[in-house]
Sequence to fold (304 residues):
Amino acid sequence: MGFFDKLKQGLKKTKENFVGKIDKMLAGFGVVDEDMLDELEDILIMSDFGVETTDFIMEELRARIKSEKITEPEKVKAVLQEEICAILTGTAAPGIDTNAVPAVITVIGVNGVGKTTSIGKLASRYKAAGRSVLLAAGDTFRAAAIEQLGVWADRVGVDMIRQNEGSDPAAVLFDACRAAKARGTEVLICDTAGRLHNKKNLMAELAKMNKVVEREMPDVHRETFLVLDATTGQNAVNQARAFSEVANITGIILTKLDGSSKGGIVVSICKELGIPVRLVGVGEGIDDMQPFNAADFARALFED
Ligand SMILES: Nc1nc2c(ncn2[C@@H]2O[C@H](COP(=O)(O)OP(=O)(O)OP(=O)(O)O)[C@@H](O)[C@H]2O)c(=O)[nH]1
Ligand SMILES: [Mg+2]
Fold:
């Protein structure tokens, strides 16, 4: 299956939930009027666009309906697609730049969102681009987390630096930085624990890890990817907001789009947080992650 088809397949539930409802609603109206726009607004809210983004989209829509004298309900759908695409394009950034090396990538996010899986997929992408990759088992908290990352390392065919469970993640990262320098590794990807810390602890832990990289590998390309689970809807937006207060997030990996009917949060994230969605997960397999592309996303969502 090609990339676009996979994205389309992954967005099936969101499409049914969102565009399906819009189609049904539009069919019930002969002409664009306030009642129709009210119903559209409800659908946006129910599809996890969030209040702020919904308000913004509705304002844009009303303005265009007026200035372009739109009366056919079906036309509103095309305008909506354009507006969504425009929001997504606003924060557009490439998935990963495999030429920006040496690179250190830290992957953060709450428990179970898909951090470790995404690291496996990232490592595979870099390796396919001919880059040497090293993984750092920075989740020293959850039982079996190290082994899980180890399974991915084996699957991709890259090495992993680890310490014992319960050790300091910053110490693991220190070892990994030293190993990367000694071996001339191009890409170091660090896993982190998904436990829900209080803000102060999380900030301290991330700051400590940051310091290690700054000291050991000062001039490398840095990325901090926040992983969000698309099935959690607006909750993911709240997580992004909280994490952006403690980390310098350079991009979002939005996972489990394939299982989600709440893909509308992509729009909410881009609009409300201004953080680019860089990659999307559309399955559990090693190749089931792709760079996020605004136009493709809007097209996969709206077009048959
Ligand atoms: N369907 C689907 N499942 C995914 C995707 N990404 C991850 N998963 C699944 O989500 C589950 C959790 O993934 P992990 O990678 O272990 O998540 P984590 O954030 O590392 O979890 P903790 O280490 O416990 O915090 C696993 O069963 C993955 O296979 C995706 O894009 N689509
Ligand atoms: Mg994990």
